[in-house]
Amino acid sequence: MTSSRLITAALSSLHPRSHGGRDRHxxxxxxxxxxxxxxxxxAGVPYTRSASGRPAIFFRDPDAxxxxxxxxxxxxx
Length: 77
Fold this sequence. Notes:
It comes from Monoraphidium neglectum. By secondary structure, the protein is α+β, with helices and mostly antiparallel strands.
């Protein structure tokens, strides 16, 4: 079993852009999106769900880079 640690910091107001896949970002595949959203909620990290309805979320790291996490991503398709 693997574990992860979520490290958060306040985001700068210098990056007010919304996000949702329209800007440059990288994507991480996860087995289940729900535990991740629970951790983000508990840490007060804002995120948006994919507008397409697929199981994916977008949030920013402390340097305001966009990170996408998608459930069940197949990197070999």
